[in-house]
């Protein structure tokens, strides 16, 4: 018995290759979905089909008959369509066999030939049915792939999701959604395992993403809702008016604000505020192109010796490529958490996952509006997964 595996796009391609390679008497003994590597290192879904052929099973007679019966795709389609068509084809088959048997001298070998041909024909029926099922599956996978791509997820991530959907649930919309969400939760959960808040929390990130507003939202929640002792420091001396914005928030919330101009001043301010439960530090937004500025920012942040969260704040309406550029730019600062702002200003949130997949850091909050302190939502693996995939049933 000769056994061979084929890695193909779909069952139709498999059948064509198997026929060409092993002849019409080969049978398909198994098929399964696997990950195949294609261009640019992206994974895609492939079909692995295993075919077998009994040694010496090919005869010129069977090949000739096979050709007559199954070469036309319409003929195959008819045969695969249902019992009625199978009967018709079998009748046609018998007619051909018996038409020839009258002319044969040895009836025993003729019967064997007939049985062999019958087997081949049935194998073709099975192969065609497999082909139709595989086509339907392929169609459903394509539609799920498109839905996931519409969320602005990178293609490599989409393929990761598709590989976990079992074929048998493909038609069950809700089941597929649950499968994808559960899979995403399992990917995100480890990132949240050591998610203890620091006593000092610094907010860094590109210009205008919402660092100061987010800091004010958290300061207000900690001070007003949880009665914590909070102080705000800012090293945002760069932009005219920036300190005033924060001063207004600090006054409304009723927490002290101090401006620091150098790393030494920051150290002194931290010492002065040792009695505080939380110290929140605002920083100047940096356009993520100037290396000197990130080094300057780092020289401030390394002054903090207490448990320190450095949160990279990013806006969810930025393009994925720019978000990744920003994560690389700020990496010298050793940030350990992410916050995504402005989820109210975009309809797709796949970009968040594109970043999380690369940075391997938890998103601790998202913000969804300009209102201080209300428009901020804490995140865990479950809520983030649901948020990212919220448009998957569109
Ligand atoms: N729609 C919406 N707007 C937001 C959100 N968060 C912040 N903003 C707005 O974004 C604008 C910029 O916010 P800031 O907090 O000043 O941003 P920043 O990152 O501190 O800016 P720089 O200090 O200049 O780098 C303001 O108009 C905020 O009201 C949000 O979640 N949704
Ligand atoms: Mg600011």
Question: Could you walk me through the main structural features you see in this protein, from its secondary elements to its overall organization?
Answer:
With 394 residues, this protein is an alpha/beta fold. It folds into 2 domains: 2-146, no CATH class; 196-384, P-loop containing nucleotide triphosphate hydrolases (Rossmann fold, 3-Layer(aba) Sandwich), CATH 3.40.50.300. The protein is 49% helix and 17% strand. The protein has helices at residues 11-22, 60-70, 73-81, 83-101, 107-149, 155-163, 173-188, 211-225, 242-253, 263-272, 291-301, 320-329, 350-359, 381-388, and strands at 2-8, 27-37, 43-53, 200-204, 230-234, 257-259, 278-282, 308-315, 337-341, 363-367, 376-378. The strands form 2 sheets. It has an 8-stranded mixed beta sheet with strand order 6-5-7-4-8-9-10-11, with helices on both faces. Helix 12 runs parallel beside helix 13 (350-359). The longest helix is centred in the N-terminal third of the chain and has 43 residues, at 107-149. Bound molecules: guanosine-5'-triphosphate and magnesium ion. Magnesium ion is lined by residues 211-212, 236, 242, 282, 285.
Concise overview:
With 394 residues, the protein is of the alpha/beta class. Helices cover 49% and strands 17% of the residues. The chain has two domains: 2-146, no CATH class; 196-384, Rossmann fold.
Number of DSSP helical runs: 14
> What is the rounded Rg?
33 Å
Biggest β-sheet: strands ordered side by side in the sheet: 6-5-7-4-8-9-10-11
What compounds sit in this structure? guanosine-5'-triphosphate, magnesium ion
Give the full name of the CATH homologous superfamily of the largest domain: P-loop containing nucleotide triphosphate hydrolases
Q: What's the N-to-C terminus distance?
A: 49 Å
Number of strand elements: 11
Shape: elongated
- In the residues, how many domains can be counted? 2
Q: Write down the CATH topology of the largest domain.
A: Rossmann fold
Structural class: alpha/beta
Helix amount:
40-55%
State the low-pLDDT regions, or none.
38-43, 59-91, 93-103
CATH C-level class of the largest domain: Alpha Beta
Mean pLDDT: 82
String of helices and strands: EHEEHHHHHHEHEHEHEHEHEHEEH
The main sheet comes to: 8 strands, mixed
């Amino acid at each position: 018995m000769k056994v061979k595996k084929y890695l193909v796009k779909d069952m139709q391609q498999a059948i064509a290759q198997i026929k060409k390679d092993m002849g019409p008497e080969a049978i398909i003994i198994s098929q399964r979905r696997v990950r195949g590597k294609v261009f640019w290192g992206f994974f895609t879904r492939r079909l692995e089909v295993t075919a077998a052929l009994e040694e010496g099973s090919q005869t010129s007679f069977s090949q000739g008959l096979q050709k007559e019966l199954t070469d036309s795709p319409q003929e195959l389609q008819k045969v695969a369509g249902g019992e009625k068509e199978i009967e018709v084809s079998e009748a046609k088959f018998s007619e051909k066999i018996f038409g020839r048997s009258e002319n044969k001298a040895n009836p025993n070998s003729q019967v064997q030939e007939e049985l062999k041909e019958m087997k081949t024909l049935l194998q073709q029926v099975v192969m065609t049915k497999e082909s139709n099922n595989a086509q339907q599956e392929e169609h459903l996978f394509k539609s799920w792939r498109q839905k996931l791509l519409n969320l602005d997820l990178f293609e490599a991530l989409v393929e990761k999701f598709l590989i976990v959907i079992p074929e048998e649930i493909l038609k069950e919309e809700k089941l597929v959604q649950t499968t994808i969400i559960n899979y995403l939760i399992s990917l995100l959960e480890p990132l949240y395992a050591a998610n203890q808040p620091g006593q000092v929390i610094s907010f860094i990130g590109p210009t205008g993403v919402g660092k100061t507003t987010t800091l004010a939202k958290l300061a207000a929640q900690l001070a007003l809702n949880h009665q914590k002792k909070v102080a705000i420091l800012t090293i945002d001396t760069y932009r005219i008016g920036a300190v005033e914005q924060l001063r207004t928030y600090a006054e409304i919330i009723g927490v002290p604000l101090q401006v620091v101009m150098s790393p030494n001043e920051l150290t002194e301010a931290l010492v002065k505020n040792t009695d505080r439960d939380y110290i929140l530090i605002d920083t100047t937004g940096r356009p993520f192109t100037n290396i000197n500025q990130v080094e300057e920012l780092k020289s401030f942040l390394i002054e903090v010796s207490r448990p320190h969260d450095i949160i990279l704040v990013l806006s969810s309406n930025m393009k994925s490529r720019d978000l990744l550029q920003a994560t690389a730019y700020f990496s010298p600062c050793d940030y350990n958490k992410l916050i995504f702002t402005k989820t109210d200003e975009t309809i797709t949130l796949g970009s968040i996952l594109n970043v999380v997949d690369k940075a391997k850091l938890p998103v601790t909050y998202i913000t969804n509006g300009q209102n201080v302190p209300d428009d901020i939502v804490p995140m865990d693996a479950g809520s983030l997964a649901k948020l990212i995939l919220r448009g998957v049933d569109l």
